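subagent[fold] <- orchestrator: predict structure for attached chain, return tokens only, no commentary.
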Amino acid sequence: MSKVEVDQVDPQSGTTLTLGTSGDTVSIPSGVTLANAGTVTGIPTSALSGTIATAQIADDAVTLAKMAPGTDGNVISYDASGNPVAVATGSAGQVLTSAGAGAPPTFAAAAGGMHNLISTATISNAATAAVTGMDSTYSRYLVTINNLVPAGDGKTLYMQVIIGGSVQSGTNYPYGNNTRNSGSGSAGNESSDSTFFKISKSDIGNATGENYSGEITLYNPSETSQFKNIGWRSVYNLDNGSVDSNIGGGYYKSGQAAITGISLKMNSGNITSGVIKLYGIT
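subagent[fold] -> orchestrator:
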């Protein structure tokens, strides 16, 4: 084997310097340092091996396209060993929740209750307003009533339950209300054998700007072994210019059939306008 020792090898002007021919092996001994002041091209990736140091990768050089494919909705985190790990995709409505030190986070139901909008109804000159869509999906349902205006002045808002698609009648609506008025102080009303829940006093106004706004909570409406408790609270403008703040509740006492909705109406006349929303509470 011959050995040539020179300081520099230059190709002939205008030509290319070739090392070996097809089938030859060009060997670089261990410990040799290759210093590159230009750009090296044409080396096949199959000829490259070894470790690329972190310092050799430029900042922001690795693009999303260079990452391995994953599962839609997964989140990248780190495991207890500090290695990258994919957090499995959760279900709709869940939030990313910490699992504490030493473990990647997980998707779980939001703590404290999440309001999931089910439906919105805009009321316009209607005798009744039915809110349906309650089933075993949620253990609690919330109905919000925004800016409800009666067609006549000095009206009362009534509520009845819906079971199997039918509004329930009969004296099966015991209830109680505690009301504070801005002018006259406290008041209340109750009944043990009403044919409806009375969820306001008899004085909701309908002058410009006057309205009833509130919310109704149904607890376990699909439960079939217990009576269904229902609570409500509201604020409404009276026909005499004052305002009532009302808190009340009751239960439907005719059996334990699942409640699938509620029906709202005034004691007389139509509901001129209002927006009613139904939420399931996680």
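orchestrator: received. Logging for downstream: The mean pLDDT is 88. Residues 152 and 206 are 6 Å apart (CA to CA).
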